[in-house]
């Protein structure tokens, strides 16, 4: 049987080629995913323009939802899954032996650190010149080795809405698990893109009493969606002074937690976060890669205000399970986030659509459309 699988392959910066791969054999321990939705995020935008593994082909797509098309006997027994089940596959493929894997922190496992360990595996990142090639969601099928981390999608949750699971899991991880947002917390969320909106949902579900979301002129629609999903106050930082407004609405107290979801605004959200945090003991979440250099970093203020700094780094197993639950609950109108969908032949446009316009929030790549 010479069945072929069509995939969109990144071959150079901003260049996609369509290639056919052989349908792989599936061992007893492995499975094959029929991809329904591959979510696209800011990381895709970044890596499409500046690819790691220069010169090697990569099937991108790291936020993948699909159905089990074929599954080996051992795979079915171990994962408690059968053919036809709809699942979310984490892009982290763990070693399953280390302390991080045992506690569900696959993102911290050495085996998923594809930059330092070329033998490591990560969906959407691992080059397609490695057999059996189908390691990304911008393809009709994806190969699932034994150590894939898989979550069953709850009944009634559509593939497109389930496709928001990755930013939603990040929201739960960053706001709740890392920064301790909970009952009556006040939260500043900088940036109303898919990550910021999912942090809004997570904070709302956890019981935050004051959720403030900031954006710029291009974010008018997104700020409205933030309000619809539970933000108490939204601020266009190009129209009003954000710090003044934050202090006004918190009656001069400031916020418990500041989250940076600006995707590349550099030092600005860090400095605003430090100022906006409450007098003592607030938590500042940062994006490590957004601000590699920071001259005159106000370390004195961090000490004086007794601030805890947390670096954002993906999501753990539990945050994915909870993300699927909240998406399936119907409590939040996810359709306000899933704004755009593209077929495989539009891969290039789909990636570039993310972040290009304020109307685009979440983009779903649907390989069979
Ligand atoms: Zn992503
Ligand atoms: Zn591990």
Give an overview of the whole structure.
- There is one protein chain.
- This protein is an alpha/beta fold and 369 residues long.
- It folds into two domains: 191 residues, Quinone Oxidoreductase, Chain A, domain 1; 146 residues, NAD(P)-binding Rossmann-like Domain (Rossmann fold).
- The protein is built from twelve helices and 16 strands.
- Helix 5 crosses helix 6 and helix 5 crosses helix 11.
- It is globular and about 70 Å long.
- The protein starts with a strand and ends with a strand.
- The mean pLDDT is 95.
- The structure holds zinc ion (2 copies).
- The site of one zinc ion has 8 residues, from helix 3.
- One zinc ion binds next to helix 3.
Break the fold down into its secondary structure elements and pairings:
Elements: E1 4-12, E2 15-22, E3 31-40, H1 42-49, E4 63-71, H2 73-79, E5 86-93, H3 99-102, E6 121-122, E7 141-144, E8 148-152, H4 159-162, H5 165-178, E9 186-190, H6 194-206, E10 210-215, H7 220-228, E11 233-236, H8 242-249, E12 257-260, H9 268-276, E13 283-286, H10 299-304, E14 308-311, H11 317-329, E15 338-343, H12 347-353, E16 362-366
Parallel strand pairs: 9-10, 9-12, 10-11, 12-13, 13-14, 15-16
Antiparallel strand pairs: 1-2, 3-4, 3-7, 3-16, 4-5, 5-6, 5-8
The protein binds zinc ion (2 copies).
């Amino acid at each position: 049987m010479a069945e072929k699988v069509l995939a969109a392959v990144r071959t150079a910066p901003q260049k996609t080629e369509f290639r056919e791969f052989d349908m792989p054999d599936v061992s007893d321990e492995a499975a094959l995913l029929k991809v329904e939705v591959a979510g696209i995020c800011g990381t895709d935008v970044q890596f499409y323009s500046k690819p790691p593994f220069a010169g090697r082909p990569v099937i991108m797509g790291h936020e993948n939802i699909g159905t089990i098309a074929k599954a080996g006997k051992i795979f079915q027994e171990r994962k408690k899954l059968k053919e036809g089940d709809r699942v979310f596959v984490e892009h982290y493929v763990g070693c399953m032996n280390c302390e991080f894997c045992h506690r569900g922190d696959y993102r911290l496992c050495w085996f998923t650190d594809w930059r330092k360990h070329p033998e490591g595996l990560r969906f959407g990142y691992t080059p397609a010149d490695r057999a059996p090639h189908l390691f990304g969601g911008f393809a009709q099928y994806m190969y699932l080795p034994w150590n894939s981390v898989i979550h069953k999608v709850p009944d009634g949750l559509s593939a497109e809405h389930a496709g928001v699971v990755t930013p939603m899991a990040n929201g739960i991880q960053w706001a709740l698990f890392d920064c301790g947002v909970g009952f009556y917390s006040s939260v500043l969320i900088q940036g109303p893109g898919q990550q910021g909106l999912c942090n809004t949902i997570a904070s709302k579900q956890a019981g935050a009493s004051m959720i403030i979301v900031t954006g710029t002129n291009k974010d008018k629609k997104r700020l409205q969606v933030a309000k619809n999903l539970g933000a108490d106050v939204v601020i266009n930082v190009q129209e009003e002074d954000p710090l003044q407004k934050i202090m006004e609405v918190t009656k001069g107290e400031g916020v418990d937690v500041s989250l940076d979801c600006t995707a590349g605004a550099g030092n600005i959200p860090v400095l605003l976060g430090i100022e906006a945090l409450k007098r003592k003991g607030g938590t500042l979440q940062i994006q490590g890669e957004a601000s590699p250099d920071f001259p005159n970093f106000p370390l004195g203020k961090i000490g004086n205000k007794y601030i805890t700094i947390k670096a954002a780094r993906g999501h753990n197993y539990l945050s994915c399970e909870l993300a699927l639950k909240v998406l399936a609950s119907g409590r939040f109108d996810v359709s306000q986030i899933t704004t755009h969908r593209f077929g495989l032949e539009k891969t290039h446009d789909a990636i570039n659509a993310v972040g290009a316009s304020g109307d685009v929030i979440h983009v779903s790549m649907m390989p069979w459309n």
